[in-house]
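In the current project phase, our protein records have gained a structure token line. A sample record follows, to show the layout:
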Amino acid sequence: MGRRPLLILGGMGMIISQFIVASVGVTAGRAEVHNNDAVKAMIVFICIYIFSFAATWGPVGWVLVGECFPLPIRSRGVGISTASNWFWNCIIAVIVPYMVGNEPGSAGLGPKVFFIWGSLCVLSLIFAYFLVPEMKGLTLEQIDNMMRETTPRKSRKWKPTTTFAVQMGRVKEERSAPKEDVIFPWPPSERPVFPDGRRDPLSVVWEDNLDS
């Protein structure tokens, strides 16, 4: 499975899980209701969210960072992306206690915060669908060509027409002849007809060698 399907499916799983947790949390899962089944359901969907992220966006994001930047700026792009990831991790870790807490000065959102996380997951899904190309099975040089020649939504159907070695002049591009023309160097209409009606000289030679 390629990068795009993983991100899109993972995004859907995260969105569904987040909004279910938020919806249950503000209704049957409230602390004053004391509904243990609702709380267990929230825990289950939080685990589903963790699985959806850990199997898709968690690892695939690092793969994309290493593939999507053009060669001249790849090192800087990877460095900025990594720094940005840790920066926002730090910001979220700092602000979440104030978002969900009940202390003075806190927002006191409680389970409502999952509506925010679900909305951010929606933005992630839109980003993956419209802006992330499919780079499975391509070299870094072919990815650069693909980004110039097609759009992310059509990138899965894109096929490379040349190689980096050909572009750099290391090798010459050669077109191989069809298999039939390699075996029979003459056109089908000019092939010799043998007494038994066959036009395959290789099989005749092979059978003659067996007879001898």
Observations:
- The CA atoms of residues 40 and 67 lie 40 Å apart.
- Helices lie at 3-25, 36-68, 74-100, 113-131, 140-149, 164-167, 179-183, 201-211.
